[in-house]
Amino acid sequence: MTLWLISFGLISGITTWLFGFGGGFVTVPLLYTLILTLWGIDSLPAEHAMQIAVATSALIMLFSATVTTITHHKAKRLNWSIMSILFIGIAFGGIVGALLALTVEGTWIKWFFIGYLFVTILDCYFRPGFMAPTTHNAKKVTKAKESINGTVIGIIATFLGVGGSVMTVPLLRRRGTPMAQSAAMANALTLPLALTATCTYVALSFTSPLNSESGFIGYIWLKAALILICSTWVGLKISERFLSRIPDKWHARIYPLLLILVLIVMLF
């Protein structure tokens, strides 16, 4: 188990830095599979496997988003004027998404997760503006609309435990932002929802049926979270030097291919 967690933590760190996603899309399928394998499908943890995976993922994303945001800010890759309104909406959406995840059956979360992946992949390939953005989208976005965008992103991303990047990267991309900068800003925009979601899960830990199980704070699986956080940090450091070396065209092409890989894992 430990070797699997370390390996996937490294992958999570690399994809988080290079593509703006990785925390949720790598760790949620991994944790879901490990829980069913370790405890068995008829156990209490297996009954709440998706909630555990989503809550633990939020804590891991909180760490990785904090590290990447600090680094990208120092390197001046973040446009805070674009991100500020989204930031507030996403933070609020993070609370709502966490509350929803605790009230919905894990099987439903799993299929929502799969459906979300499928729609995102189709969107990347078939809706213009992602693979080869040409000019900056000059259409004015009001603060009210941006707030709503942020809230929706926060709710969906926290509910599924995936961070906001798979919504924010295409959004920023279609506004003419290069993939490298889109990934950097997506990491920063994951921070508010990871923070509010983690705080919500911890605050409501007393309601968790897993309190009788050792190694859990509410739905957060502590041992797995610690191992993944440490290995994710190593993955972030490994990939940091490669961010500016991937051509924008290939950066965009690899992005949906990784999503397809995650979709296959969740289906099979």
From TrEMBL:
Which regions span the lipid bilayer?
7-32, 52-70, 82-102, 108-126, 147-172, 184-204, 216-238, 250-267
Show the InterPro entries listed in the entry.
TM_pro_TauE-like, TSUP/Inactive_protease-like
Top-rank lineage group of the source organism: Bacteria
Give the way it sits in the membrane.
Multi-pass membrane protein
Q: Name one GO cellular component term.
A: plasma membrane
What does the similarity note say? Belongs to the 4-toluene sulfonate uptake permease (TSUP) (TC 2.A.102) family.
Name this polypeptide is given: Probable membrane transporter protein
